Amino acid sequence: MIVIMIGLALQAGGVKGFSHIATLKVFEECKTKPDIISGSSAGAIVGALYALHNDSDVVYKAFSDAVRKFLKKQKSKPEPIMNFEMVIKESLYSLDEYYQFFKALFGKRKFSELKTKLLVVAFDIESWKSFIIDEGYVVDAVLASCTVPGVFEPTYIAGVRMLDGGVLSPVPTFELKQYGVDKIVASIFKESVPSYTTHMELMLTIDAIKESYIIQHELSVADFVFSYPVNVNWQDFNKYAEVYENALNVARRVKDEFENFIRR
Fold first, then answer.
1. What distance lies between CA 141 and its chain's CA centroid?
2. For 164-201, how does the pLDDT look when each residue is reduced to its tens digit (9 = 90+)?
3. 234 Cβ partners below 8 Å, 6+ apart?
4. What is the DSSP string of 189-219?
5. Where along the chain is the active site annotated (predicted)?
6. Which residues are catalytic?
7. For the whole model, what pTM was predicted?
8. In this structure, are residues 124 and 79 in contact, taking their beta carbons and an 8 Å threshold?
9. Which of 3, 109, 250, 263 is the most buried (most CB within 10 A)?
């Protein structure tokens, strides 16, 4: 009997990462699961939670509970002076409280304790390359993958400064290729390029265009794509339930097509 290995790549994207839980829900409804998961940033959070629990409902509850607690804490704090502080400082926030968010999710669990093989992708500042983390403490790996440039200070893995995996590998499909999977499924967000009226908005638009080209390249090796139209900003975490419900409706519309794909 030939065993087909299925890999699942989860895109970076803040609150939009709740869409990935819908992808995992449809996997379960089709009586299957990925053999290996790769994720950047929010994709790493969802991927790690699923690799730990192997249950999409548990993933949703754990992630949403953590987000609600985080939002409650943030309400009592003054906002940084964005335009000024982004110029004079390397980052807007320290990693201390950010680390606590991930520690609450993963504790001291190691990759060796996970139920599904997991590849967490971060960006190595020293070599300017994507870096695969698949050993050690899960909390350290996911924190590194979620360290948004300019928002949080870089963290360290093996003595090397790391930033958000979405910098260079927003949809880490090629990382799955390296591990020899037979079929690659990608879970992504379908976004329009933002318009602009100011110089700052123009810079953001250019970044979005560059990212879209990277994603097109990454999807060239994907065999099936769950694509979710998500029109929220990555940091609008108060909209997590809306993002998930909308994504679940989309995912279930392609459920039959996906089931045929995995049975081929």
1. 12
2. 999 999 999 999 999 999 999 999 998 766 666 776 66
3. 13, 14, 15, 16, 42
4. EE-PPPP-SSHHHHHHHHHHHHHHHHHHHHH
5. 41 (nucleophile), 164 (proton acceptor)
6. 41, 164
7. 0.91
8. no
9. 250
